[in-house]
């Protein structure tokens, strides 16, 4: 049988894993697809670099175009990262009739619709399972496993770095800064952690999940984002005391045909399946109208988990290749996008206020909630041991974002409130 | 576009859900497959029965052969259950070139290989996602999501009835008999609960998962089975005290190319993802060489979750139909089956002994473990408050089944042991 030839763009962590799996599992893989799989050419930054795997020097090139333009290559596996130039490579590869497997969430979140449109035009496959939640096959699950259902809500812990930081803060009662420093030493966080800790990485993944789950074209700009850099150990202590775990959650939900997508630190009630996902693990919780609650858990990053998803996509592309059906099963978002307004977005809120410790304060505060129609689930007032002020901890019932914004705006001008210390979304 | 015509065998719980989804989500479904989906004919036991959905009377028949033999029908969805006669229907439908979607674990566990062989011969699809773990798309995950990986272990809570019973026993400290009675009243357990509580239902599902995970033909007779009817509330109390939850686990594992598959009540260490799966929920934990730990969680039964999987299969069949590739992606187990011997099967054990309360007893007992090469993780001896005897609680390190059988056999003849009270597998 004619071997299938693969070109690899990038030989970093994930690329190395891909080579390991394709070579190490060759027998299993070729039994499934009906022919050998050969990694024909690999584009790298530096072909003289010492590597943890042995690669035939003749396969390496420092020019990605050599991979893209090689007429022998059937499938291009892109694990080099990057956005603009990488997009050029991929569009050109598609133009030449090559199929694409990519792990690139940035690219897919920003230019997914353009790339998928080109793929459809050229009858090519573009698979990107590894772009969200590493080793968890969540993209196929949304496309195929729940093709019959109407997905109403997706909640994801889709960034391992921030989950590691929040888990550690919760388990050890230490500060954000201390854990971040440790995570950087361990290699769980980058030297510049902005993209992770400010929620941007999670937002990109949620744009992809929202598009697939709701079959409408969710763009990165549609995702409201708040990171974890302002989460204090005190906030986490309050969360625990009230029976919640603090998690950076991506939340995509829909009501009728209106959707909203956000990423924010969220207090999740203990007992909810996603509340106990700790460390660098990822999990995606999916609520479907028919199927109800489901959750998918696993490693969100790392050489071998991510490579597992990349090679599973490669197997799928090659099976399609053998059957001559590449590009024919692509999911094109077919629903017009309707974003929820701030009046339609509703959730529970946790609010921690520092207030004057005197009579009538609570009445003034609860009056503001009443005025804007926000009803309260619980209110606790307690003295603050250090200052001549009191703390008020409020958990609201579901309230619209519009109403909550007005309440908080009003609080800014209320003289009895010394500080709006924290506000968090509450789930579960 | 020409509509796709579906014949339904059975209109019980799951069949009703299938009709609800196909009719209720018609627009979404036809957008995906490119043509309307029509449920053309439905075989029922009693066509005069009052039902919770409105069905055109003319579509009902009491003769399944009418569905099988209708030349208009493209796909047969089998949700009637049963084994021998149902197998005949399905084989005949395949002979007539119809594709099959089934939720029938009994049929697939017992006759899966014969049915799949016939399907391959006739180039037809046979999909059976709903046969294991209801709404959790675990079969596609094993076939496609992890096609690139080498799966080393699958642990499943794949029977909701027994998980409900054990969860309740654990949470409320009540007896097996009391919870079973309650579960029967609530409809979570059948009037004759044998198939569930004795582990047979779980064993059938594990045969299916083992076959897919290890790509070798696991048969029901290869699964060693022990149910939960002998689990006492005391056992569960001991488990909790030692930091475990008692779960009926299906466990399929492999080392090199040797596999073992079993179902048994198992003490799972708290903190393991599967330990916190409670109530009627199902979960399948998959450990892959490359991907590491993953877990998939959701409803294991029920009208709508199970119907979600059935209709997702139907969508997949119809997409294949449009592409003309039915039957071409079938997974045929290609590895020769090698079962682990009792010397190769190894796990940790919990053992509770009632012994004479006198000097030298513990020495005699630990001597037996030493003789057969079983090393111990922990040993606790404590007086029994009610009797002039002591309890010894032992947790072993990994020990071969063969050695443990010899130890237990030896214990039978040891005069200081009054009773081998309980023995459980330990995981996590």
Number of domains of chain A: 3
Low-confidence regions of chain A: none
Fraction of residues of chain A in helices?
Answer: 25-40%
CATH fold node name of the largest domain in chain A: Dihydrodipicolinate Reductase, domain 2
Biggest chain-to-chain interface with counts? A-B, 56 and 56 residues
**Dominant shape of chain A:** elongated
Mean pLDDT of chain A: 95
- Give the N-to-C terminal Cα separation of chain A: 53 Å
Hey, roughly how much beta strand do the residues of chain A contain?
Answer: 25-35%
Radius of gyration of chain A: 24 Å
> How many DSSP E strands of chain A?
17
Concise structural overview:
Helix content of chain A is 37%, strand content 27%. With 428 residues, the first copy, chain A, is α/β, with parallel strands linked by helices. Chain A is elongated and about 85 Å long.
What's the structural blueprint in terms of helices and strands?
The structure is a homodimer of 428-residue chains.
Chain A: E1 4-9, H1 13-24, H2 26-33, E2 37-43, E3 60-61, H3 64-68, E4 75-78, H4 84-95, E5 99-102, H5 105-121, E6 126-127, H6 138-145, E7 151-157, H7 160-172, H8 176-186, H9 194-197, H10 200-214, E8 223-225, H11 233-241, E9 244-255, E10 258-269, E11 281-288, E12 292-299, H12 303-323, E13 346-356, H13 361-371, E14 376-383, E15 389-396, E16 399-400, H14 401-412, E17 417-427
Helix pairs in contact in A: 1-12, 4-5, 5-10, 7-8, 13-14
